[in-house]
Design brief:
By secondary structure, the chain is of the alpha+beta class. It contains 20 helices and 26 strands. Strands 17, 18, 19, 20, 23 and 26 form a six-stranded antiparallel beta sheet that branches. Strands 3-2-1-13 form a four-stranded parallel beta sheet, sandwiched between helices. Helix 7 crosses helix 9 and helix 14 runs antiparallel to helix 16. It is found in: Cytoplasm.
């Protein structure tokens, strides 16, 4: 493996039209933070750049819907995203934004350099235009009937029902997703980056030169290259973005996919006047951390841009992750089916490292994975509390109890002591190898193996049993345990920085560098430790149930928004209505009907009599929930026999957005027998 003088790490620019959620964190930001913290811990020259992606059509759509300016939208979410990252300990060297003046000039200059070299082609095409909104429409903002499967709501680039790739002009009955009007085709001119010119270079550079890339990344690149690269527009008709800096380009801006990756360069310029050594020196290793939806842009398009410009290095690796689902469903910002970082930090104070740990332990490194709140709870309680927290607490509490908080001197080591300490450098070697190859899930296991080793050592040596008969032996045991504790603090720091900080405070020593990892002489005899504190607390069921209820509420709100109201039934006369005798009644008894799932036998007081009604609501209400409740009953419905029981009447019900049947009831206590009409 080549040794580099310095590292440039970039993370995909989050889009500033909403907060960051756990899918973003697991896919991009937590793994890149681990990698950068590790490099810093090793004393490497490394900078890490990121920023908000603030241009593009979705920003203008959100601004239009909320009645505010695009700048208002990005200002709001840039602040939320930046503060959320800081709250989770995501340690960028700079977090910039693509609306900065430095970025505008950098992106404009980059375009002009390629333009002046003749690297673009100009094409005039017919595109859909929304006359009501006064804008050209991106494919994603045109909907219609899919020509392949006939389903409604297909987009101009894809039908999500059948998965077919489409052109906007293929849609039947196209509509603007902005105004709802029918768009018209208009002629427009744009500049294109002819990726086909760079295909031979990209094929050799990726397929021959980077076989070590993750299989999901390599495979997607190969698929694109095998399919043949096509020119890609670098401009679009829009009034929000960086203006195309050439004559005849009025009303056109740089396409956001061209604009955004240049944000890495402009952020580096903002960070340091020596930016060129990170971007133009072959002794720099550049690594892009992204999600799988950005693989093509970072492995094919951006390298083609850099190559066309000349003078820039290309990425050494692009360790893209797959997607993280939530409770078995795809995360969706539009449906509010997500765990938002800003809300998590507010609702789970002091648990930043729990989230970092769980997202790393379950990272979608090679395939899509699923986040569940029950697993979150289990990993906290069974791993962080029971393994890491338990070991550190026991080592420090026993030192305080038996040696007044002073590190005891070690006596002669037993074979088991030496065998335990010999594991430290072996774990370090595996940990480093996994981080260097972007296997952060495995690396986290290695880091936790220091704590597992310590836990096993204390369980096997049982100092609490030996202390009365052989205090010198206990001194050796706890001296050894404290060396393992210090090793654990070094190893977990990239993964759980807040926890490592607590551990160094409890050990009452400054954080030790990575070079110390694996050694058994980190905390000298005679050193006074600090006050032990619990690293983690058990998460109770009610905390998890609260989060699950929150998701169910989001699901109910989505169902309500998507609910289709049934059309009006056939018109009836007033006389028809008068035939229905609806009365207020009270449920006196309720019991399940044997050998059925849905039926309940209800005895009701209608005010005119007491009768039995069989109702199919057992999947929605328990008998205990119903007794004593007032309901509305259609009392003059013809009797009907159900499961051998004569049912006289019908309980009136509605259906909520989730499909649950709900009782229709008087708003206040009403005399049984009161008629409704």
């Amino acid at each position: 493996m080549k040794e580099y003088k310095r590292y440039l790490v970039t993370s995909a620019l989050p889009y500033a039209n909403g907060p960051v959620h756990i899918g973003h964190l697991a896919g991009v930001y937590v793994p890149s933070d681990i990698y950068v913290r590790y490099l810093r811990k090793r004393g490497r020259d490394v900078i890490w750049v990121c920023g908000s992606d603030e241009h593009g059509v979705p920003i203008t759509i959100k601004a239009r819907r909320e009645g505010i300016s695009p700048q208002d939208v990005v200002d709001k979410y840039h602040k939320i995203i930046k503060e959320s990252f800081e709250g989770l300990g995501i340690s960028f060297d700079i977090y910039s934004r693509t609306t900065s003046p430095v970025h505008a000039k950098t992106a404009s200059d980059f375009f002009l350099d390629l333009y002046n070299k003749g690297e673009f082609t100009e094409e005039t095409t017919m595109q859909y235009y929304d006359e009501e909104a006064g804008i050209f429409l991106a494919d994603r903002y045109i909907t219609g009937t899919c020509p392949k499967c006939g389903s409604e709501g297909a987009y101009g680039d894809q039908c999500e029902k059948c998965g077919s790739t489409l052109n906007a002009t293929d849609l039947i009955n196209p509509r603007s997703a902005i105004s709802g009007s029918q768009p018209v085709l208009r002629e427009t001119k744009h500049w294109y980056l002819p990726l086909d010119r760079h295909e031979a270079f990209l094929r050799h550079w990726i397929l021959d030169g980077h076989k070590e890339w993750k299989t999901n990344v390599y495979g997607q690149c190969k698929s694109w290259l095998d399919g043949g690269l096509q020119p890609r527009a670098v401009s679009r008709d829009l009034n929000w973005g960086i203006p195309v800096p050439v004559e005849g380009a009025e009303g056109k801006v740089l396409y956001v996919w061209f604009d955004a990756p240049i944000g890495y360069i402009s952020a580096t310029k903002e960070l340091t006047p020596e930016w060129e050594k990170y971007w133009k020196d072959e002794e720099t290793k550049m690594v892009h951390f992204i999600g799988k939806d950005n693989i093509v842009f970072h492995c094919i398009v951006f390298p083609a841009m850099l190559k066309a410009h000349g003078g820039y290095i290309l990425p050494d690796n692009v360790p893209a992750n797959e997607f993280l689902n939530l409770e078995g469903e795809k995360i969706s910002t539009s449906r509010n089916w997500a765990v938002w970082l800003n809300e998590y930090l507010e609702e789970m104070p002091g648990k930043q490292d729990v989230l970092r740990y769980v997202l790393t332990a379950n990272a979608p490194e090679t395939k899509d994975n699923d986040f569940t709140w029950k697993e979150f709870q289990a990993r906290n309680n069974n791993e962080l509390v029971a393994v890491l927290g338990n070991f550190v607490n026991r080592a420090l509490v026993l030192t305080g109890k038996y040696f007044d908080g002073t590190v005891p001197a070690s006596g002669e080591l037993t074979a088991y002591d030496r065998e335990t300490l010999d594991e430290l450098p072996r774990i370090r070697e595996s940990l480093e190898n996994n981080i260097e190859h972007y296997r952060f899930r495995e690396a986290l296991k290695d880091a936790m193996n220091f704590a597992r080793l310590g836990n096993k050592y204390l369980a096997d040596t049982e100092p609490w049993k030996v202390v009365k008969s052989d205090p010198a032996r206990v001194a050796t045991i706890l001296h050894t345990a404290l060396q393992i504790t210090a090793n654990t603090a070094i190893a977990i720091e990239p993964f759980m920085p807040f926890t490592a900080e607590k551990m160094w405070r409890m050990l009452a020593t400054e954080p030790l560098g990575w070079d110390a990892l694996g050694r058994s002489d980190l905390i000298p005899a005679g050193h006074r430790t600090g006050t032990p504190e619990l690293l983690f607390e058990k998460i109770e069921d009610e905390v998890i149930e609260r989060q699950l209820r929150k998701l169910e509420e989001a699901k109910a709100a989505n169902a309500a928004a998507a609910a289709v109201t049934e059309p009006q039934k056939e018109t009836i006369t007033f006389d028809d209505f008068q035939k229905m005798d609806i009365r207020v009644a009270r449920i006196v008894t309720a019991e399940k009907v044997a050998k059925t799932k849905k039926l309940l036998k209800l005895t009701v007081d209608t005010g005119i009599d007491t009768r039995v009604i069989v109702s199919g609501i057992a999947e929605h209400y328990t008998p205990e929930e119903l007794v004593g409740r007032q309901v509305l009953v259609l009392v003059n419905l013809a009797p009907r026999e159900l499961k051998g029981i004569e049912s006289k009447g019908m309980i009136l019900m509605g259906t909520d957005p989730t499909g649950k049947l709900v009782l229709l009831q008087p708003a206040a206590e009403t005399a049984c027998g009161t008629t409704v009409g």
